[in-house]
Amino acid sequence: MPVRVLLAASEVAGFAKTGGLADVAAALPRALAKRGNMAAVAMPLYNSCRRAGVPIERTGIVLPVPNGDRVLACRVFRATLPSSGVPIFFIEHAPYFERDDGKSRGLYQTINGWGEKEDYWDNGERFVFFSRAILELIPHLGFAPHIIHANDWQTGLVPVYLSEVYRQQPGYQRIRSVFTIHNIAYQGSFPRELMNYTGLPERLYNPAQLEHYGLNLLKAGIVFADAVTTVSPTYAREIQTAEFGCGLEGLLSSYHWKLTGIVNGCDYTHWNPETDQYIIAPYNAETVFEKKPLCKADLQRRFHLPVDANRPVLGVVARLVSQKGIDLIISATPGFIDLGCQLVVLGDGEREFQNQLQHLRDRYPDRIGVYFGFNEPLAHVIEAGADLFLMPSRYEPCGLNQLYSLKYGTPPVVRLTGGLADTVVNATVENLADGRATGFTFGDYSAYALYETVKWALTLYRDRPADFRQIIRTAMAQDWSWDRSAEAYEKLYRQIIGP
Question: Which CATH superfamily is domain 288-479 in?
Answer without folding.
Answer: Glycogen Phosphorylase B; (3.40.50.2000)
